[in-house]
Design a protein that fits this description.
Elements (H helix, E strand, L loop, with lengths): L2 H14 L3 E2 L29 H8 L3 E9 L15 E10 L4 H15 L6 E5 L11 H10 L5 E4 L1 H4 E2 L6 E12 L5 E14 L3 H8 L8 E13 H8 L12 H5 L9 H19 L8 H19 L4 H16 L3 H5 L1 H28 L6 H11 L3 H8 L8 H22 L7 E2 L4 E2 L2 H25 L5 E6 L4 E6 L6 H16 L3 E8 H6 L13 E8 L6 E6 L14 E10 L2 E8 L1
Parallel strand pairs: 1-2, 4-5
Antiparallel strand pairs: 2-3, 3-9, 4-7, 6-7, 7-8, 8-9, 10-11, 12-13, 13-18, 14-15, 15-16, 17-18
Helix pairs in contact: 3-4, 9-10, 9-11, 10-13, 11-13, 14-16, 17-18
Length: 596
Amino acid sequence: MTSKEIRKKFLDYFSAKGHTIVPSSSLIPDDPSVLLTTAGMQQFKPYYTDPLRAEKDFGSRSTASVQKSFRTSDIDEVGDASHLTFFEMLGNFSFGGYFKKEAIGYAREFITKTLGLEISFVTVFEGLASIGVPEDTESQKIWKALDPAIRIERQGVEDVFWGPTGSSGPCGPTTEIYCRNANNEDIEVWNIVFNEFFFPGSREELLGNLVAKSPKKLESLKHPGVDTGMGLERLAMIAQKTRTIFETDLFASFIEKLTDDPPLPISHQRVIIDHLRGSVFLLADGVRPSNKEAGYVLRRLLRRAFVYEKIYTLSPDIFESILLAVIEQYGSFYGELREAKNSVINEYWAERERFSKTLERGVRELTALQEPISPAKAFRLYETYGIPFEIIKELGVIHTLNLTREDFDKEFRKHQEKSRAGAEKKFGGHGLLFNTGELKAADKKELAVVTRLHTATHLLHAALRKVLGNEVQQMGSDITAERTRFDFSFGRKVTREELDRVEGLVNKVVKDDYKVDYDTMKYDEAIKSGALHFFKEKYPDSVKVYTIIHPETGEVFSREFCGGPHVKHTGEIGTFVVIKEEASSSGVRRIRAVVK
């Protein structure tokens, strides 16, 4: 059974069970508290507290998806038989609809009948009095009713009580399904979370502070829901009867490109394949190598691969062939990869060129060391030559035995604090960063620029709807002093002619110097006024609505929910220029634009 067949069987099964199939969201999440999308449920978080929105947005309280996911916590572990950075998460979700009985029944039927696999055992929550959650006897009874002979293991809060994704969110007890691979090892393949509660904090706070009777308490959800996640890579390993995920059809063709000459250690083959595969998906979703946030993650992946290329004297063309093979293999399901093919390859070569200028000197200095490498020394090697922590550990051998990621990260944070203090001094003590999640600025000068871009983004949203139709809905935005990035729902590439019309509409409003006014009104009143809003956002009872209106005729060009800041007149914006239009994810397009 190929991985493509597994994806199709999963989506077909849940579609037949009344679930709306929702495309994968971008690896760049709307939630500013999370660096990257780590699970399938992230795009659905708002619906657990407002199921009626799910009915409005999806026509159902039940959805299913195959979600692109990325976990930075596993970067240091990549190289063994199971850890990955990028992976695909199959999931089905219920927002105040079905609950434990149906969720467990669907999972068992899909695993044992649709896929024809055998379940080794399942786990359930043993309960924890300090958080007021009893043992999950209901799930035990459901499993036993379906299969009296099934083995059930009771586990604790750290294993089978799923915490919030991000800084807060829905959570609850889980039941996990284990199957056996070709090594006769029991592997967890499916985690079914019963979201009965809301916790106003992170998973770490839940596990650490809540057990210690922190003031933060679990709140019962008015509409309990279901959130499930099943890793495609692990499921393929079970279905294809392989010993590791890297022997499945998801990786085998890539590995073959590295096994001829010269021979590489298996662990390094896995690192290269994982990092290049993950880089393709990050690049296709608009991430670019940098020294901060998601760009730093991408840079770590690429540069670690580049170091291996140098150590084993590999042809750089081999890496490009792997990138192209990833695009070809996954492009039929994730169309955005094929659309971004040229930019992915171009960015790969550009980053390689940037890194190659210092790599040789850095590796030479590292391998010549004769004394233990301190965290400060390790960070200096990273800062000076761009050599990632993982490579310092590998090449340093006995000199890095006592060097830990935790100590290295402490040095990194010290550097950030010094930089921040320097910036604050430079900007007269006004602070380093204005950050609403959507708008980011380092000082008052940058704030003036992002304010112009923010109003321009409202004009862009309105212009897109006028040119492309009202099917266009905002799916997210990110505004810095360099550019605005606007994501919107649309099923095809926007033509150059259409982009020119959009750009022309925006600049006409700028030239005519429309007024920018705002009113504070009740949420229901704002909706009736026709104000556009970000459908995934949860708004308070009272909201601000910004209207961009012709000063003489009273024509309204744009009306949106927004907290500001904005210019007072569109004439302040300057010339609006669309730089790029590309795919963000399936069914979602992305525009990057600037003002001059």
